[in-house]
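Summary for the steering committee. The consortium agreed at its last meeting that each partner would contribute one worked example illustrating the joint modelling workflow. Our contribution is presented below. We chose a case with several input lines so that the handling of multiple components could be demonstrated. No manual editing was applied between input and output; the record is shown as generated.
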Amino acid sequence: MSKLIFQEDREMDVIAIGRIGIDLNPNEYNRPLEETESFTRTVGGSPANIAVATSRYGIKTGFIGRIADDAFGRYICQYFKLKNIDTNGLVIDNKHHKTGLAFVEIKNPKESNIIMYRSEAVDLHLNMEEIKEEYIKNAKALVVSGTALAASPSREAVFLALKYANKHNTVTFFDVDYRPYTWNSLKETSLYCSMAAQMCDVIIGTREEFDVLEGVDIPGNQDDDITANYWLNHRSKLVIVKRGKDGSTAYLKNRERIVGEVFPVQPLKTQGAGDAFAGGVISSLIKGKNVKEAMKYGAGAAAIVVQENSCSEAMPTEEEITKFIEEYKIRRD
Amino acid sequence: MSKLIFQEDREMDVIAIGRIGIDLNPNEYNRPLEETESFTRTVGGSPANIAVATSRYGIKTGFIGRIADDAFGRYICQYFKLKNIDTNGLVIDNKHHKTGLAFVEIKNPKESNIIMYRSEAVDLHLNMEEIKEEYIKNAKALVVSGTALAASPSREAVFLALKYANKHNTVTFFDVDYRPYTWNSLKETSLYCSMAAQMCDVIIGTREEFDVLEGVDIPGNQDDDITANYWLNHRSKLVIVKRGKDGSTAYLKNRERIVGEVFPVQPLKTQGAGDAFAGGVISSLIKGKNVKEAMKYGAGAAAIVVQENSCSEAMPTEEEITKFIEEYKIRRD
Amino acid sequence: MSKLIFQEDREMDVIAIGRIGIDLNPNEYNRPLEETESFTRTVGGSPANIAVATSRYGIKTGFIGRIADDAFGRYICQYFKLKNIDTNGLVIDNKHHKTGLAFVEIKNPKESNIIMYRSEAVDLHLNMEEIKEEYIKNAKALVVSGTALAASPSREAVFLALKYANKHNTVTFFDVDYRPYTWNSLKETSLYCSMAAQMCDVIIGTREEFDVLEGVDIPGNQDDDITANYWLNHRSKLVIVKRGKDGSTAYLKNRERIVGEVFPVQPLKTQGAGDAFAGGVISSLIKGKNVKEAMKYGAGAAAIVVQENSCSEAMPTEEEITKFIEEYKIRRD
Amino acid sequence: MSKLIFQEDREMDVIAIGRIGIDLNPNEYNRPLEETESFTRTVGGSPANIAVATSRYGIKTGFIGRIADDAFGRYICQYFKLKNIDTNGLVIDNKHHKTGLAFVEIKNPKESNIIMYRSEAVDLHLNMEEIKEEYIKNAKALVVSGTALAASPSREAVFLALKYANKHNTVTFFDVDYRPYTWNSLKETSLYCSMAAQMCDVIIGTREEFDVLEGVDIPGNQDDDITANYWLNHRSKLVIVKRGKDGSTAYLKNRERIVGEVFPVQPLKTQGAGDAFAGGVISSLIKGKNVKEAMKYGAGAAAIVVQENSCSEAMPTEEEITKFIEEYKIRRD
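What follows is the complete predicted structure of the assembly.
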């Protein structure tokens, strides 16, 4: 039986925690960033994108995060409300920290860099006092992304949230989301991400991200089976190794191995694919789909998002994913 | 005789030092920043704007500053070259610092706020090692703006540049350019700005800026005559108190008092007016105009810039200012 | 069977990790510190004291720590060699950090304060690169004290050491050693100490220290039985709650409860009692004594140390403890 | 006329500002610090020593500084009161900063090192708010030592004090007191020390200290005459270059050059000689002695102090210096 079990009597379906930023997407494509003249702003950050994805999918979604006390903070809050995301877990910063920014370059479909503004970013100032045990206790699932562990006090806040989730049987999802620029060293990343992973029921990452995650525990390993075995021997019940357009593989506690479907499309950019996939998988699992179905919906969501010039704005509903998959198969066959 | 004397045998006319940033100007006006959807990037920062202004005016201009090792740094460097500014004083940062940003809100002609990204901004990492005595020795004038004194190591770099300028009779201009967000306290601002002002031949500021500048030396003073008297008793030869559309007043060593002309226009925004004014005044003085003429050209440049949706991009040439003033007078009379 | 099982084929008996400092003990007693005129320096710091205690006891002891590149660092290294402690795990700092200091006040036997010099203390700069997996793999036991978790990078180094110890079945001892001055908040202390405690086979602390340790997990608890139950449900095999001269209680995995003997003496000071106790208990357990015996030897060592004006220097050998206990009982009976 | 002119109507004779620390002097001499077992604590820090020297000399002395809220802070305050130093300028720190420490090694009369504890030292946290204009206005002289300029906010506090002193004709003394360990770079030291020196009426330093002081202004200079000329062309009225037992040379505004007497003795250590000299010179000048006399009393005080195992405690009264000089000459002749 490859379904995850959730505490069904919870008010909230899923809470994401951590990074919310502003993406500045280029209005002109296929040119380097130094020649990009104008930008459109959207909400970004891996857990924020996942929250938009799950809410769009039709899952009751909340967010725990710290936002700036300025126009960008207000915009994020308004946007979350518009997307039907519960904002009771948002805290307004009182120390003049600024929203993290990502200026996106779309040089060509395969090459797209980012300039990140993360120095003293407001999301990394989320602190332990702002983690409410009740809020987490009332949710079926908690989604953590690795970036939130990169610096204090956000690191401590996330570990506390994981402790509360474990205490109350809130299912914990860990999206490795490795972003080198906020971390001091690879070894520190491995240490804290592996400590978080050991508190999580589901771990999702690319092969490269698992290499980072395992740097201390099983250094040098690049074998998915060894990876799955290692983490499933700890708390994890489900491990998903993403391989982009080559598809992803899920491993279950009983060592069942499920290869996900893929829907190759012509992408505009690659950003957002991982968040769309995670959002689709998590929503589907919470809605009671089995792992194979969940992976298909995740892949469908990712295929939709990479064709658009935004991450959060492009997140599809469950119906849109269903329709995309059906039409895709008709086209393909 | 109300002309400033410059060392005429210098290769460079003027060098500005300090802040270069990126302005992100709204593509949609008359709305709050949280509802502004897209932005156009231009080069910004008070001394950078002044450098563009003097170079556009026709004065040989250089810049001493630290730029990021990324697409924004490359853009700034290319832009300066395009505007004919000497970039030999630009240093490429090697520590992942980012370009300072200013997101501009144009709510209405009178109200326009800014979100500043200045945490660990690359310009504030300019350091003493990067100040070349020869470069300053070869210039007629050095322009310092107060913001560069707000944090170390930029603070020390600017004091060193002022020392070299004083040593070699390079005329020193101080534009107070008070920006509260980078400073620890008003008292610290007063202290360091007044120490810099005492090393400068010309001081330019609004009445509010002189209030800040004098916080330690003559606390509570709001009288322009006392201001002028105080600074002219030190090193200064020329003190200009700006009063926006009410015009500005210049005070000379011999206590002559010159009220500048104004050219009231319907502004789109107010940002950039001060830099255009300073650029016009400095260029004119270096070109040998007297103080009264210089103030007129400064006011003309400011009137042109406030009607445009950019600071640096809108800076006019000497001919454009002359033409604007002539046409303005014809219209007026 | 109340004995701990160690991997008997290991070269080293026990490795302590973390804080090594200099204690400055007053040469004049029974006066406030402001009137204390001269001081004698000895090696201090909880894990350093424990290492001296175990080595004096006759157990092969090593230490992992960072020492200053100055006369105090050299003194510590010489002292450890003199006490027969393996120094291969000591790293000499190369960044001018200084040895932590503790100026001890002995106002009266019950009241003795300390002025701690811990700002940028060299021991807290121990980092992950300095933790050698082989060194830990070759030891029967690892002793961690909570203070080393108070700041980065020492915090990460200790978590890494615990990971290696768990991986190689090196028995892990956690001495809570709560020192408020190095921590940011009580909640942060609770978080990281509880995360470390969950990686440890034996937890030792006073009731007050368990209150801190449990701040996040079982807030408000002050009941030793609940404490024992909670931690024994995790990895721990042995939990010891110290109650000073009222004796200590050990709890085993099988929920056996052992109350330790005490040897009341007239103390000169109280510092060092806890470290002597921990050293005696750990050494005895490694030597194969059962928990009851180990607690007796710990209490004996503590009784000896509180009568002397030093912590490290006063640590007794196994024979001295045996002799003290025998004589004490003769005197008492 | 080689006397300095002071505002005679001032309540206080002299105020020193900046560093007050604790010296820990070895109780055993002629051995390296790692073998030194016990230490006696005294008050230390260049300006504190000078304040003790001037007060002992019989001059009404005050001190502006920040002291720790612990036993060492209380000891310093009590000691100052005992030495008749006005403590109204002392501020008790409220942020847990600790008193700076100096552990002194007396290896042999010529070689004696120091381990300095200066990380976050409380004296460097003196801030602008704690500088009272009235207090400085009521004093004949202000003594600044360079170390207080090494870090913020003490740097800003001292510059503010110098501004107030200049405003109210309080004679300003600058003792370069170069201590490399608190500074970021030699160039930064040169910059800030030279900026302070330009606000001072009297500059005192060793040849090596003038080399540092002049690093930006006259780099490479090692000639006392050029040194004197340079600074006397600025604000300074008196420049004293110290050359230890080879005597010192004073330069006056009128370019008069006065070589000071020396009293060679067998020293126990060299620390404190400079402070004793400065204290003697400053006190003598304030008491109305001419520069030649003042230099003699400074040299006498230094000769007395180097024979004792303390700096502050060994500072002599005017009578003791007079007596020492008389007896020295009798012995010599």
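The longest helix of chain A spans residues 291-305. The interface with chain B takes residues 24, 27, 32-41, 70-72, 74-75, 78, 96, 98, 101, 103, 105, 113, 115, 117, 119-120, 181 of chain A (CB under 8 Å).
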